[in-house]
Amino acid sequence: MTTESSIKDLLPADLAMGTVMLKVGNMKLMTDYYQRALGLEPVAEQDGGVYLGRRGRSLVHLAPAPGLNLPARGEAGLFHTALLFEDRPSLAATVASAARYEPGLFTGSADHLVSEAFYFSDPEGNGIELYWDRPREAWSWEGSNVVMDSLALPPQRFLQEHLTEGAVSGQRETRAGVGHVHLQVGDVQSAHDFYVGTLGFEKTAGWHGQALFVSAGGYHHHMAMNVWNSRGAGPRQDTLGLGEVLIEVPGGDDVGALADRLRVAGVQSHHTGAELRFEDPWRNRIRVAVR
């Protein structure tokens, strides 16, 4: 449980995950996928890249990175970007469009008790989760740990029960956000030391020493780290894939408090006042900025 003395060392309860930047080799192919498969629309264009999202809110930034290679399976980096939908019909509409675009990019589905999730891979191998949260009052907690599982969630049955004509025709008008970001790291203890001990997330779950789930404000998780493919991985090379994770906080005081914690921990960062840039132990780049 959080104590009064530790409040100042925690990230703000109302933080939100922001735009995930991906370094892209084939901009035409990747832009087509995120628009046609996931129903995202251009929000802005900058430096040859494109910001894609819903209703003016950017979710993914595709940045051209010609000449870079795809990361090896065992390297640290992105496990998946998780896009959160408001209800089952809007989730179903995007699951359907993603499955139609290229059925071979579907990688699985699961009922996690707190959520229902469908997993895909984009054309350059970046993982994607599309999910819907059950109401918070339906979540179960054992102490400070949220109860999650991976139960069967048959995709066809889900679509039969929840896909509607209205959801399909209004797909691009419905809201979506980056609900969480899941990373591949070299070891879970170092991830805990950094993301909980230094950044100020709270641990909400673990999985047999192979994964860590962390959040602010009692969410099931805003970020996660696992070693399923990447145990022992060292700092990342400069590759295609994850470019930057954005965490949005309410005010400059929140950015300043985190800058202080990073300085005390000896973590190098660049602090402009309104935002803070730094890297985790595997060179995954994080930016914390005022919303």
Description:
With 291 residues, the protein is α+β, with helices and mostly antiparallel strands. It has a single domain (8-290), classed as 2,3-Dihydroxybiphenyl 1,2-Dioxygenase, domain 1 (Roll). Helix content is 22%, strand content 37%. It is built from 6 helices and 18 strands. The strands form 3 sheets. Strands 2-3-4-1-15-18-17-16 form an 8-stranded mixed β-sheet, with helices on one face. Strands 6-7-8-5-11-14-13-12 form an 8-stranded mixed β-sheet, with helices on one face. Strand 17 (275-279) and strand 18 (285-290) form a beta hairpin.
Summarize the structure.
With 291 residues, the protein is α+β, with helices and mostly antiparallel strands. The protein has helices spanning 27-37, 88-101, 155-162, 165-169, 188-198, 252-265; strands at 16-24, 41-46, 49-54, 57-64, 77-85, 106-111, 115-121, 127-133, 141-142, 145-146, 176-184, 202-207, 211-215, 223-226, 241-249, 269-271, 275-279, 285-290.
Shape, principal axes of CA atoms: globular
Instruction: Enumerate how many helices there are, as a single number.
Output: 6
Major beta sheet summary:
8 strands, mixed
CATH class assignment: Alpha Beta
Number of domains: 1
Average residue pLDDT: 96
CA(first)-CA(last) distance: 27 Å
The CATH architecture would be Roll
Binned strand content: 35-45%
Structural class: alpha+beta
- What fold name goes in the CATH topology slot? 2,3-Dihydroxybiphenyl 1,2-Dioxygenase, domain 1
Helix content: 10-25%
- Quaternary state of this entry equals single chain
Order of helix and strand elements from N to C terminus: EHEEEEHEEEEEHHEHEEEEHEEE
Going across the major beta sheet, what is the strand order?
2-3-4-1-15-18-17-16
Unreliable spans are 1-5
CATH superfamily: 2,3-Dihydroxybiphenyl 1,2-Dioxygenase, domain 1
Q: Count the E strands.
A: 18
Rg from C-alpha positions? 18 Å
